[in-house]
Design goal:
759 residues, homodimer, 45 strands, 31% strand
Chain lengths: 759, 759
């Protein structure tokens, strides 16, 4: 049964699997090789057939291309287990990617397209003395007429537009073409009693005052009728909040009760993520336990409200609609959603473990994030992901597997999507962390090409309404008012070219749900997969390009060498390349997060593109290099997302001799605590020890969840020898609120930076 | 049964009704008075109790205010009919407004909130020798805390925000507070055989090439199993396209077949509205007819596409979504949707007859309209409306009964809305005229206050997706990109004040789904309901105000006397008031329709606010005075909506001595015929006979569904004596394409117009 942490009286069997490949559905594999489950077909072949390893080194990833059009068949053999009377042997899999048939002893039991719908098959009646279970996986989905694969473009993803397979593996600007398949989540044989649960969820509805919850235990299973159930809900300190027992009358049953004054679950930064424990036990007449289920329950109410000020905008005819709501309210309090976009932590999703999630969610929390947008190009995560987000107070914006494609209106696709989305909704909806359902990524932009009329999105809205009506649903991101981009420190496509500092101050969005600044990977990381002779200078048609430093998005992405040389002059070492690129990423992202917060209350969200990466990317917008190696920008973003901080609005990064330095100080407060008055001093630090006071602001403090803004200050830049200077913002008696910013300085007739320039 | 035109072998009985009112649910009426069915409770009381009549004269409408909080009970008495064995006596009503209980001989049979769900009750088993059927109608819906009625404001409508009762009767800028109730549509007793149909619809899906239809006959009824059915679909010329017969196996059955090369239904201006006739007969074993049903079927495919050019807009970061699709495509061809907003044709909806619809739809067609937006403040029309639109090729944008309110998320409201919307969708979806479902009017604007997250709109999207997925659904109008307003010839709230001519050229909307210019009612119409002593000059607190000439929207709406006097000087007669006001309405609306068409292909729709009115309005944006009296603007709009015409873009209406007249000629073509080249001459006509050529354009013609644009022309205005001048646009050898425009001329030091000035 699908629930985690179930008390099982009986056996769970993880059989040994083999795998083979074949070019037609009917053909038998020429050979069978050992398979790891969960895993991926590519990894099994790589291990067995002496491929170049590791797969992420240099160009090794290209070795897998041939597999796309092959069938792969898993098989396992097992003797009939010793079943007691009434016992059942079931096959359970939480994920098989993507389109497959399952047979036992040559008889087909199931054909399924879709990797997010759990497989649960009762094998008992087909068992022989020796049994062979086969899982045959079809070739990857392709669409007639969609573009062939061309390195350096990402149009190959269009082959995913008629399937519910996440599009990312067809290749993205940070993900190679590597279309994964295989058994990718927990999979086993299980001996069960004749009575067992197939679903057990706790749902609830809070009243308007949040003082009372109507709690419902929803049970589904086999042979439940007539059995006894015991249900308890206990607090974190072990007190019993709900205790009910009785006799079940059918195989689908809901038990409803009221809970007074539930302790509320809060997202990180706004309170404690309080979780109750629900335990259900099913017993027979002799009070013997037949099955049981544990889960966590967090009580919270989520709304997506109009941004503050939006309704008050002046009416100008012809009037269009007001912009879409983008302000999250949890338990009656608006929050500022600070977070990031989550992509696969591993290119081979079968390699993702609880520990993978645990580390990364911890890192997200330590970056002062309170929300993760689970990007629609990737998978819906495994169960432990949601459990961990519940525990950590990390909100989840969950997209369905649609991204940057015009998904078809064909009935066959809609049927698969309905099956997959229903499974996803029913699995995730009981989690306290769930904040937003979203149809997918960038579907209403030209490169997506869908509209409000697209049947897939109307279906998803309808399913979410039917199955989980009180969780907000957005058809895609960006909606009107939200912003995606830019993704460069200096973007030539905006007007006459703009730094992050300029476009972000000009922008007036309700929510910045994607934005990025690329940074090269850390030095020691690069050395692990770029062959030594290719390391410096970085060139096209080397591992740098395979790993997305060139031609990954636009021509120069994501290394952006022309920009780096325009700012920093000729770059003569890998060390300089790394530190200059990472400096712009750090300062750029810091500015965007802080500026989004300075635009509060009108703006309500800032989520950078992207948090991590599924394999080593040589230059990327990510904060965390694969696997879990922090880039310097991570620390700057974490500082920019502190609940309270002093912040500077500054018009640009690159300053020239003779200019006046300009800045506006802010005290940013995302908490519901008022912040006390304080002197805030802005100081320019340069040439290794010199300093000049820019301004002192007698800050009146900041009310609950409100910022405070000081006056604009101006100071003629001193003559400097160095190519960089720092500005510190210090809060009297509250050094935890202090901030620091690094800027470039360019003397007359200078280009680039002086040799050896430090910051 | 709900279908029209059913062949009935048995009796239909229209009993005599009485009505009485009482202040509590339990109380009996003090007296019973005759009732007209269909009708309205107000009309029955008015007739019986010697109210001032007609209800639309002067302030007579205020006589009904007291009734809002009373219960009204209808009753009718009838003897047991002489039923043959197996026959049933049923009560059928197509509409009872709004929240009611039905009882027979003191036993409650039904309690229903909702006026759009047909009532169909089998009374047979409860019949006595003498029977009394009662329909008790509850007081009007009111919401605790919603604003009390204040004349001159329209906030009273907020009492409708927790019900599915159309909000308009709570008062609007052109509708008095007159909250109607009563039996408002066809209602009767009927003797039926034991087998009868309760629903019979024909649905279909066309293939991509439109060459084949998968046609489905959907039957529901009583005791159908085992009965024989015959189904035929015949063409307009009487040829049989489908003929099927067989035995039904259940009471709910779908019979499916294919039709090759169906003749397509086209909207007015794009082809013939071809309709097939479907006939179903249910027979018993002896081949005796038990029930039958006729309906019309038009084969067409509707899509709502992105407007041309929208996907090609340059990408600017941060990027929001592209604007919502607003371009209707019928049978694979984009059309330019020219039409109007439809409100109640009668304040008492029980008075609306087939003839009412017939006249008005004919008028709409003669105005060259191809679409009616059935505004969400009003009702969903009776069945014959949709039949007539099918026949006339008039597309229907059908809104659900939500308008300008923040409809509640409460479960009780959502349940009523689900019931009502389900009834509406199932009734209307089989009509070829249906082009768009819409959640309602102006819900995403500040005065509506709903958002994409509002559960009522998510419910409606979900229901439309489930029951009628291939008809476009929009949650409301305006969506992003669409425009509502302005509603004035000269709007002081736009910038420093703008004429229609200015804001409309500045506007850049995908669709103008509401816009208006007010005009006073026709002279003879005004005299019918404004008492003679109040007629001139028009004043506040007279019948002029009751009939919306003052304080109806903003202070001066809809008469707009300050504007009229600013343009035309002191107005000294009712005749001058009417002609000046109607001139601005005519020229303003003509300009908007033509400018919307000039903005093609980017713009795809123009629907003025509003077509007609439900009672006599003294000054209003309507084209047609109640009842069916055409205002001059009707004719100008009809001319502006001709499929092909020569058109002028002119920067303004009011010209001053010494200025250069400026214009840009266009040839507008909304047809799929190419238009031949022609000389087009623009001539200025003034002072009763003088003329000056402005320009001659050698127009290259216009391709299919494309406009052609000439060069801007400029001419110093001649000195004129008159206060008005005309500009004619003449198309050589195609006078049907000619156009004429009237402008004002003001000499130096003049204010207003010269006495007796003619145009």
């Amino acid at each position: 049964m699908p629930q985690q942490n179930n008390k099982r009286l009986l056996d769970k069997i993880k059989p040994k699997w083999e795998i083979g490949y074949h070019f037609s559905e009917e053909a038998a594999p020429e050979k069978w090789i050992p398979a790891t489950v969960p895993g991926a077909v590519q990894l099994d072949v790589m291990q067995a057939e002496n491929y170049q390893q590791p797969y992420w080194y240099a160009d090794n990833v290209k070795q897998f291309d041939w597999m796309e059009d092959y069938y792969f068949t898993y098989r396992t053999s097992f003797p009939r287990p010793d079943l007691h009377p009434g016992q059942r042997l079931c096959f359970h899999s939480k994920g098989i990617e993507y389109d497959f048939k399952i047979s036992l002893n040559g008889t087909q039991l199931l054909e399924q397209e879709g990797m997010f719908t759990y497989v649960d098959l009762d094998l008992t009646d087909q068992l022989q003395d020796i049994n062979e279970l086969q899982v045959q996986i079809k070739p990857i989905p392709k669409v007639a007429g969609a573009p062939a694969y061309t390195p350096g473009t990402d149009t190959y993803r269009q082959h995913a537009r008629e399937s519910a397979k996440p599009a990312v593996s067809y290749g993205w600007d940070w993900h190679p073409r590597l279309v994964t398949r295989g058994i990718w989540d927990e999979t086993y044989l299980e001996v069960r009693s004749s009575t067992y649960l197939t679903a057990s969820t706790v749902t609830y509805q809070l009243n308007e005052e949040l003082s009372q919850a109507q709690v419902q235990l929803n049970l589904e299973g086999k042979a439940l009728a007539g059995k006894h159930y015991k249900w308890s809900l206990t607090t974190e300190s072990g007190q019993i909040a709900i205790a009910q027992e009785g006799i079940l009358s059918s195989n689908t049953e809901s038990i409803s009760t009221q809970l007074q004054e539930p302790a509320l679950w809060w997202p990180s930064g706004y309170g404690s993520p309080t979780l109750y424990t629900s335990e259900v036990t099913i017993l027979n007449a002799e009070q013997e336990e037949l099955d049981s289920s544990h889960s966590k329950v967090g009580f919270r109410r989520v709304k997506l409200l109009m941004n503050e000020g939006e309704w008050d905008k002046p009416l100008v005819f012809p009037a269009s609609r007001n912009r879409a709501p983008a302000s999250l309210e949890i338990n009656g309090r608006r929050i500022f959603a600070k977070g990031t976009n989550w992509v696969h932590p591993e290119i081979f999703i079968g390699l993702i473990t609880n520990e993978t999630y645990e580390k990364q969610i911890q890192l997200a929390k330590e970056a002062n994030f309170n929300i993760l947008r689970i990007w629609g190009g990737g998978i819906t995560n495994k169960e432990s992901f949601f459990d961990l987000c519940d525990e950590q107070g990390m909100l989840v914006w969950q997209e369905f597997p649609l991204a940057c494609n015009n998904y078809t209106d064909k009935a066959s696709y809609l049927a698969v999507l309905e099956q997959e989305a229903t499974s996803i909704i029913n699995r995730v909806k009981a989690h306290a962390c769930l904040a937003i359902w979203s149809g997918g990524n960038e579907l209403f932009n030209a490169w997506g090409g869908m509209t409000d009329q697209s049947l897939a999105l109307r279906l998803l809205n309808s399913l979410c309404y039917r199955l989980d009506p009180y969780t907000p649903f957005v058809p895609t991101s960006p909606l009107n008012g939200m912003g995606h981009g830019s993704y460069l420190f200096y973007d030539k496509t905006i007007g006459t070219g703009e730094e992050v500092f300029q476009w972000m101050q000009r922008a007036d969005n309700t929510a910045y749900t994607e934005f990025g600044v690329p940074g090269v990977a850390n030095l020691e990381v690069l050395k692990q997969y770029i062959p030594p002779h290719e390391l410096f200078p970085p060139k096209r048609e080397t591992a740098w390009e395979t790993h997305h430093a060139f031609g990954a998005w636009r021509k120069d992405s994501w290394l952006e060498l022309p920009f780096l040389e325009e700012y920093f002059g000729e770059i003569t070492s890998l060390e300089d390349l790394v530190r200059f690129s990472q400096l712009t990423q750090s300062e750029g992202l810091k500015f965007i997060y802080e500026e989004a917060r300075r635009q509060k209350p009108y703006c309500s969200m800032a989520l950078n593109w992207c948090f991590q990466e599924p394999w080593p990317v040589a230059a990327n917008n990510s904060l965390v290099n694969w696997p879990n190696i922090l880039k310097p920008a991570y620390y700057e973003v974490a500082a920019a997302c502190r609940p309270v901080l002093a912040s500077l609005r500054v018009p640009k990064f690159l300053w020239h001799e003779g200019e006046d330095f300009i800045c506006e100080p802010f005290l940013l407060n995302d908490t519901y605590d008022p912040i006390a008055p304080a002197q805030i001093t802005v100081t320019l630090l340069y040439d290794g020890g010199k300093s000049l006071k820019v301004t002192t602001w007698t800050c009146p403090g900041a009310p609950e969840f409100q910022n405070s803004q000081g006056s604009k200050a101006q100071l003629p830049l001193p003559d400097m020898h160095g190519s960089f200077f720092t500005v510190s913002v210090e809060v009297e008696s509250n050094p935890a609120y202090n901030s620091r910013y690094t800027f470039m300085y360019r003397g007359k007739n200078e280009t680039g930076v002086k040799p050896g320039a430090a910051f």
